[in-house]
């Protein structure tokens, strides 16, 4: 329905984040790191139509794909492989030049840009390098895409004091360290430090969205998706 109204159809979680985290005293960034990274910005004392959100780039997608191919593991546990590696300068420069980073929000992305085809091309091109260096550089790129997005599309208009991380990426301690190093003047914390669960953030969001749909309430946020109007999302489908 959001796409029918001219929106990107994503991100879908900003309404729940507005309900749960809005503050009269400070602007907050809620950074989810799932397969794709996405951020919701809630300005200080914001009304709902002042909330905006967009996909920052890859989250765990490229890291996990590379771990599967190089180590036959589904993810980099606590970022331990990345912590042993060094950045590959040539790959750093190639990743920094990815055209998605230059697109001005609202925007969204997915496997079509950062999926297995793209990761596979990188692994083939840099196969002469130690695998831990590739994992370290891909982990760095996720952090860089987040910091770049904030520096270019958030901080010029909003003074952030806090970034709250969620999603599987919060368990990657090397990734979290990279993010904090790239934004030294902003406090980077996890959902757990706020009394919530990083792994349950989207489940909680969709419980809220489902409740809105059940009660015939709109739940997209046009300032986040680019839609022309507020719409009721999803359908209630009853069994026969």
TrEMBL record:
Transmembrane segments: none annotated. This is Anhydro-N-acetylmuramic acid kinase. SUPFAM superfamilies: Actin-like ATPase domain (SSF53067). GO terms for molecular function: ATP binding; phosphotransferase activity, alcohol group as acceptor. Pfam families: AnmK. InterPro entries: Anhydro_N_Ac-Mur_kinase, ATPase_NBD. One of its GO terms (biological process) is peptidoglycan turnover.
